[in-house]
Amino acid sequence: MKARVYVMLKNGVLDPQGEAVRHALGSLGFDGVEGVRQGKVIELDLAEGSTEATVNEMCEKLLANTVIESYRVELM
């Protein structure tokens, strides 16, 4: 089984990487981009029988800094 974890900075947390991407897009002539939020995607190959609760625990302990980041788990 596979799981995909999407991790993003919470709203209100400054995102300097996203701002750098927004600026670079403007410099390349892509007008109209008013904001960019950058995150990460983590794919996990899990043993059969693994649960979403186990993946959530992984996120809480290691994969996401829950003080400044939110995450979403997708089992596939």
TrEMBL record:
Pathway: Purine metabolism; IMP biosynthesis via de novo pathway; 5-amino-1-(5-phospho-D-ribosyl)imidazole from N(2)-formyl-N(1)-(5-phospho-D-ribosyl)glycinamide: step 1/2. It is found in: Cytoplasm. GO terms for cellular component: cytoplasm. One of its GO terms (molecular function) is phosphoribosylformylglycinamidine synthase activity. The keyword Phosphoprotein does not apply. It catalyses: N(2)-formyl-N(1)-(5-phospho-beta-D-ribosyl)glycinamide + L-glutamine + ATP + H2O = 2-formamido-N(1)-(5-O-phospho-beta-D-ribosyl)acetamidine + L-glutamate + ADP + phosphate + H(+). Keywords: ATP-binding, Cytoplasm, Ligase, Nucleotide-binding, Purine biosynthesis. Signal peptide: none annotated. Gene3D superfamilies: Phosphoribosylformylglycinamidine synthase subunit PurS (3.30.1280.10). Its EC number is 6.3.5.3. One of its GO terms (biological process) is 'de novo' IMP biosynthetic process. Belongs to the PurS family. PANTHER family: PHOSPHORIBOSYLFORMYLGLYCINAMIDINE SYNTHASE SUBUNIT PURS. Part of the FGAM synthase complex composed of 1 PurL, 1 PurQ and 2 PurS subunits. Part of the phosphoribosylformylglycinamidine synthase complex involved in the purines biosynthetic pathway. Catalyzes the ATP-dependent conversion of formylglycinamide ribonucleotide (FGAR) and glutamine to yield formylglycinamidine ribonucleotide (FGAM) and glutamate. The FGAM synthase complex is composed of three subunits. PurQ produces an ammonia molecule by converting glutamine to glutamate. PurL transfers the ammonia molecule to FGAR to form FGAM in an ATP-dependent manner. This is Phosphoribosylformylglycinamidine synthase subunit PurS. It comes from Shimia gijangensis. The gene is purS.
